[in-house]
Specification:
The protein is mostly helical. It contains 9 helices and no strands.
């Protein structure tokens, strides 16, 4: 039996999905309890449209998670190629911290869906993104050689435990400074 080819998604449906995701990222970063109704309204779509794209709150959160992690994974080699290694690492950490503000209130949903990270398709590529930056820094002498990228990931995981509403951005910057200082040669 030959399956029917997938029908291309209409442009308006793609645009609606993109607006929903953009608004959801803002709203969930501002408050992990942001309602789907408020997200739909702010995105200029009906709640039914939101539910057609994301049948559950968890589905919406996981899509944001996937997109953000893929962005971070893709960003590491670009930064390495465009900046000195220490600058690249720091800029990447800044983006990880931005992501941490989104993840703060929804970490339990992500951990449940990924079996606490054991079934996370992004784990290996994320660790490799860290390795790309660490290797560049070790090669130019700005970072210690032989640093385990999984150890750095463990250090970074504190970022999604920082409450953004309680001076989170400043605290994240201080913690990242401590991490970078510990990685320097």
């Amino acid at each position: 039996m030959n399956p029917q080819p997938a029908k291309p998604t209409r442009k308006d449906a793609r645009d609606n999905r993109a607006r929903i995701l953009a608004v959801a990222r803002e709203e969930i970063a501002a408050s992990s309890t942001a309602s789907l109704t408020a997200i739909a309204k702010k995105a200029g779509v009906g709640i039914g449209t939101l539910y057609r794209h994301f049948p559950t709150r968890e589905a919406l959160i996981l899509e944001l998670y996937r997109r953000d992690l893929q962005y971070l994974i893709d960003l590491a080699p670009r930064l390495r190629d465009e900046h000195p290694p220490l600058t690249a690492l720091r800029r990447w950490f800044d983006e990880v911290a931005r992501y941490g503000r989104l993840k703060f209130g929804v970490a339990e949903v992500i951990h449940a869906a990924t079996d606490n990270g054991r079934e996370d398709e992004f784990y290996g590529p994320f660790v490799q993104a860290i390795a790309v930056l660490l290797e560049a820094g070790a090669a130019d002498g700005s970072l210690k050689a032989g640093i385990d990228p999984e150890d750095v990931l463990l250090q970074l995981s504190v970022l999604w435990r920082i409450d953004p509403a309680r001076d989170g951005e400043a605290r994240a910057a201080r913690i990242m400074g401590l991490i970078v200082d510990g990685l320097r040669a």
